[in-house]
């Protein structure tokens, strides 16, 4: 293997992914591990990094650029937030406290309504690198879904929704766990859930318990219960995010199942959305950060 | 101690409370334990009952009347649901599978929207026994808050809200746990949270993450964060339950802190509410069930 010119790192709460890169942006090799920031104390980051890609570093110091929760207060070292409106990639990278040459991309913050993102700014930069001149709204589904208004290369404003984490907490830490299996899907139940809270978001508070009560009284199918919960939560998010997406060009980051659910739910509202591969836009964003740094 | 004529049992998910009773409804002695239904398998109920009040039974068989989750599918034995509209106390008690003479009060069910209650029906009966001829709406705050429309001695309809369980799941099993302490209270933050979701329930989905983001960006006080979460959730419940309470006579069951929060939030909407002691109405309901049984 040829020596990488630099290393791209996507270091989130639950995963670490690294790419050995050539200077021109070509991927030499890709690796992943489950050494997410959530598992590591401050002393654990450097060993985790060496364990995954120590051999890439054998021939001397290789610059690395990292994005994600590695830069959170509970991460390796806190990387500041750049305040919107601003371009997604701030040039002010933060050096990790290590002999390794690791630079962390800052997150974005918004004072009012108070909001933060960390990792998604790199995906937004990557989406813009792959779609030059794009204006509109980007939806980044996940534990804490983000909606970002992007114009003229800047993030103008954004909002976070705890949709993914709510789904996990409700389906595993409340009475709904008795009625919601880990797998199974029912599109009609999902669509009905989306429609219910998108048009009547105030129903959310009472609709949740009906999932349990329907099971007790009518023996509702687990797949339908699971899909209905997902639909209710995504419908409530789309209702609250309507000022973002209504009448806008929409991009959804994430080619997997979750991104497709958002595209489906938006489509039912007559709002077509472009879907982009999450890993691809992350890597494109890290490459954009590398280019910005080497040309600075 | 004189021998009880009967024993009243309030057997919920987390607690067991028993009263040794005279035939005229006088309390001879009261005891409690933490042997809630949530901790017990099917074989554990009888030993838990004997452990708490075995000496009350020394002189022979004493009839017992129980309400609560003891009658759930995961409880001692499943007591049916009576379907609303109906009086809160169905005369069709269910015998527990035991040498002890334990009769369990059925819950209430509603086919559409699917809903169930178990334990609250006894509190409603007790409230009506203490307030004869009362018509209006009863709010029973808790893990699964209930709103019941009561008229002419019957429960006409009801709705459940997972407000209490949502508070617990959000504050201990999501990222909000980093910002929400176990104790602390800020009335202004509570009031503002209630007002926000009561008038704009669609904001709930986005307001939750602001609790975390405010802490990260502005170092928000824990007491304010905790009170804001409570306010947002109760405001959303009041918004969804508005068709129940608007313009109605309102009773709130629960004299403790949680009941007072509901009374405060309703008061801010110009809706005065009567507050009743939860234990007192439970006992009054169990006495009503005893009287109904002995006069049947």
From TrEMBL, chains A, B:
Biological processes per GO annotation: D-galactonate catabolic process
SUPFAM superfamilies for this protein: Actin-like ATPase domain
GO molecular function annotation: 2-dehydro-3-deoxygalactonokinase activity
Highest taxon, organism lineage: Bacteria
Pfam family, one: DGOK
Alphabetical keyword list: Kinase, Transferase
InterPro entries, alphabetized: ATPase_NBD, DGOK, DGOK_C, DGOK_N
Signal peptide (from-to): none
Protein name: 2-dehydro-3-deoxygalactonokinase
């Amino acid at each position: 293997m040829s020596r990488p010119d630099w290393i791209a790192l996507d270091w989130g709460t639950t995963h670490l992914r690294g790419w050995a890169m050539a200077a021109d942006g070509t991927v030499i090799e890709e690796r992943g591990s489950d050494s997410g920031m959530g598992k590591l104390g401050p002393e654990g980051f450097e060993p985790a990094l060496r364990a995954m890609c120590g051999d890439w570093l054998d021939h001397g110091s290789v610059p690395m650029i990292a994005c994600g929760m590695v830069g959170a207060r509970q991460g390796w070292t806190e990387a500041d937030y750049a305040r919107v409106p601003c371009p997604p990639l701030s040039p002010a990278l933060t050096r990790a406290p290590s002999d390794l040459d690791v630079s962390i991309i800052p997150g974005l913050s918004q004072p009012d309504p108070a909001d933060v993102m960390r990792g998604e700014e790199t995906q937004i930069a990557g989406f813009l690198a792959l779609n030059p001149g794009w204006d509109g709204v980007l939806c980044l589904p996940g534990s804490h879904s983000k909606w970002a208004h992007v114009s003229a290369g800047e993030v103008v404003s954004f909002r976070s929704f705890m949709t993914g984490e709510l789904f996990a907490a409700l389906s595993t830490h409340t009475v709904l766990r008795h009625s919601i299996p880990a797998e199974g899907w029912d599109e009609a139940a999902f669509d009905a859930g989306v429609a219910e809270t998108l048009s009547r978001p105030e129903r959310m508070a009472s609709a949740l318990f009906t999932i349990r009560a329907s099971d007790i009284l009518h023996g509702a199918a687990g797949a339908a219960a699971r899909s209905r919960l997902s639909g209710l939560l995504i419908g409530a998010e789309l209702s609250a995010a309507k000022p973002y997406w209504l009448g806008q060009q929409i991009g959804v980051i994430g080619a997997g199942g979750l991104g497709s659910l958002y595209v489906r739910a938006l489509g039912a509202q007559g709002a077509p959305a472009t879907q982009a591969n999450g890993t691809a836009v992350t890597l494109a964003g890290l490459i954009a950060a590398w280019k910005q740094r080497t040309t600075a």
